[in-house]
Write a structure and sequence with these properties.
This protein has a single domain, classed as Pectate Lyase C-like, CATH 2.160.20. The chain has 1 helix and no strands.
């Protein structure tokens, strides 16, 4: 029997993806609550429906990334990230 464990981030266990290379990675529906994605290269990554509450996006490369349906993503987070005309933002941030 295959068992899939799903981590639930808490204030004590925050995901640190800073300075990682996660191009073209599908993180649809991921809980990135409080995650540190600073200076990560997320070019063409898929974040459909991902939760970005309190995520750190300083210098995060989101060129061509699909953020459609992402929740708890703020204008300030987007201002700190690097986006381009191919970046797909959620409806409230277009």
């Amino acid at each position: 029997m295959n068992v899939i464990a799903r981590a639930r981030p808490t204030s004590a266990s925050r995901i640190d993806l800073s300075r990682t290379f996660i191009r073209r990675t599908d993180l649809s529906g991921a809980s990135l609550v409080g995650a540190n994605l600073s200076h990560a290269d997320c070019t063409n990554a898929i974040f459909r429906g991902a939760d970005f509450k309190d995520a750190i996006l300083e210098g995060t490369i989101l060129k061509g990334a699909d953020l459609s349906g992402a929740v708890n993503l703020t204008r300030e987070q987007i201002r700190q990230a690097i986006v381009d005309e191919r970046t797909v933002l959620p409806d409230g941030l277009r």
